[in-house]
From TrEMBL:
Similarity comment: family membership: Belongs to the TUB family.
Name listed for the protein in its UniProt record: Tubby C-terminal domain-containing protein
Tubby C-terminal domain sequence ranges: 15-113
Chain residue ranges for the region called Disordered: 54-76
Gene3D superfamilies: Tubby Protein, Chain A (3.20.90.10)
Comp. bias intervals (Low complexity): 57-76
InterPro entries tied to this protein: Tubby-like_C (IPR025659), Tubby_C (IPR000007)
Pfam families: Tub
PANTHER family, per the entry: TUBBY C-TERMINAL DOMAIN-CONTAINING PROTEIN, TUBBY-RELATED
Length: 119
């Protein structure tokens, strides 16, 4: 038999979630645009290209001073990225804690909101 306090502990332990956020792009002075470093995995620009990082890992960079924010953001582990490599061809990279199904579903949702906007 469990005490009342024990039930809330069990419920709170079972409710783990991961909060992801988009990685903030850096200004590329040479190309005069905002860009993300895909380490060669995305070779074409696209409105669908994105990188997601853990919101928990970004909290330490937001507490730093503004001059170091870009450097700290570049050190965050990318949990999921989608990048265009050819016409109608994209590459998806993901890691734990996302499953292949979760990563694919997130990537598909990026196409659902902008159908017909990009040739």
């Amino acid at each position: 038999m469990q005490a009342e306090g024990d039930e809330s502990e069990v419920e709170s332990e079972a409710c783990h979630h991961l909060e992801l956020r988009s990685k903030v792009p850096a200004w590329d002075a040479q190309q005069q645009c905002w860009s993300l470093d895909f380490k060669g995995r995305a070779t074409m620009p696209s409105m669908h290209n994105f990188q997601l990082i853990s919101a928990d890992s970004s909290s330490s960079s937001s507490s730093s001073n503004n001059n170091n924010n870009n450097n700290n953001n570049n050190n965050n582990t990318i949990i999921l990225q989608l990048g265009k490599i050819d016409k109608n061809v994209y590459t998806m990279d993901f890691c734990y804690p996302l499953s292949a199904f979760q990563a694919f579903a997130i990537c598909l949702s990026s196409f659902a909101t902008s159908a017909g906007l990009e040739p």
